[in-house]
Amino acid sequence: MITESPRWFTSSYSNNGGQCVEVATNLVAIHGVVPVRDSKRADGPELGFEAAAFSVFVDGLKAV
């Protein structure tokens, strides 16, 4: 069995200032979740958000 690993990335709007979160959208189709973690703590904990909830969150950010 092959297990897909998260492919982490930060937003292009983050300006690489080090105070970022990373997301791994490659797992949405397989697991229906979007993992999120602190970019400064790559070995730290991850939060998993349902894809639909994460989409609502991102749409809300775009509306600001």
Give a brief outline of the structure.
By secondary structure, the chain is α+β, with helices and mostly antiparallel strands. The chain contains 2 helices and 3 strands. 27% of the residues lie in helices and 22% in strands.
Structural account:
- It is a single chain.
- By secondary structure, the protein is an alpha+beta fold.
- The chain has one domain.
- It has 2 helices and 3 strands; from the N terminus they run E-H-E-E-H.
- It has helices at 28-31, 51-63, and strands at 21-23, 33-38, 46-50.
- A 3-stranded antiparallel β-sheet has the order 1-2-3.
- Strand 2 and strand 3 (46-50) form a beta hairpin.
- The protein is globular and about 30 Å long.
- The model has no long low-confidence stretch (mean pLDDT 87).
